Amino acid sequence: MSQSFMTAGASRIATIDLSPFSASKRNTSTDSQRLKVGQDLVEALHRLGFVKVTGHGMSKDEINKALDWTKRLFDLPECEKMKAPHPPGPMPHRGYSSIGKEKVYSQDDVDSQTASGNVEKTLRKISDFKESYEIGSEHDPVQQNIWLPETILPHFKEYMNSLYERLAKISHVVLDAMSLGLGLEGEARGALNKLMSGRHCQLRLLHYPAISKEKIQKELLARLPAHCDWGTLTMLFQDSQGGLELQDPHSKQFIHAEPEDSSFVLNVSDMLQRFTNGYFVSALHRVSVPDPETVPESGLPARYSVPFFVAPDFSHIVETLPQFITTANPAKYEPVRFDQYGSIVSKYQYQNNNS
Ligand SMILES: O=C(O)CCC(=O)C(=O)O
Ligand SMILES: [Fe+2]
């Protein structure tokens, strides 16, 4: 797989400063400032399906703290991490998956391999060189968290629960700005807010270990193949190594999301695409392993990232908002229950083989 950085003619990722919505500036910012931010956010998401967000309230120190905890977790010996193992199969999507256990596919990969009759075996030939740890709300009635014993990493659980709550709050601010930008009021606004359930989001900790140049030269490896997320929105923090690439839906080029202090990358996911009848398009994105020739002798450094997946309740039926259905753009999607959609997509997209 080759790394394709931003090339001439490719779009730039817009940066949206959400600070007029933040608690500290809410009283001093004006309605028209907030409206402008909302409209800019909507325009940017309509154009590409992803933006960078600043002014969201998480300070640089707070972001570094989240990345530090992630590193501390993955620095533990494998036998300790395996005390909170992800169960076999895609559900519940909780706990620790060691390197190569989880395999992410795109729908295109699946479609192109279906004819072979053995989709999983064929696609698993190239393993994903990453490890992950999945966390949900402590109030999720469907998927329970799988924690390490407290003695192994004291205060990890407490910290991660607080991070989940913090990111859930920030996602409400994003949705507020989006409602304003789309001009949604009353029931329509309520319907958008239902795409975010405090108890069904997911916090994911990711470690892409360093890879030597020799290993890249000799083996076929992936980090995270191209895929779309199946919730509503994803807010992703990454370390200074960068590596996340998102596809411009028009030019089909992948754009490198340069890491920037204090920003997160926000991408549209499948439920928001269906809700808006395709006005927002779910962003195809990946973390690739570069061409061996472009990798320095020192190899590819380790990388850490922390995505937060904003999602509705599992039993929520996601329907397109009537105002997005017109004669020129008739309804494209049937209403779908979120867990039913997820069970189809996650069967292939997040296949965990931790047995
Ligand atoms: O690590 C990254 O930058 C991407 C993570 C991601 O896309 C995912 O976990 O769905
Ligand atoms: Fe993703």
From TrEMBL:
Origin superkingdom: Eukaryota
UniProt entry keywords in alphabetical sequence: Iron, Metal-binding, Oxidoreductase
Annotated GO biological process: small molecule biosynthetic process
Metal-binding listed as a keyword: yes
UniProt-listed SUPFAM superfamilies: Clavaminate synthase-like (SSF51197)
GO MF, one example: oxidoreductase activity
Domain Fe2OG dioxygenase positions: 199-312
Family classification: Belongs to the iron/ascorbate-dependent oxidoreductase family.
Full protein name: Fe2OG dioxygenase domain-containing protein
Lineage: Eukaryota, Fungi, Dikarya, Ascomycota, Pezizomycotina
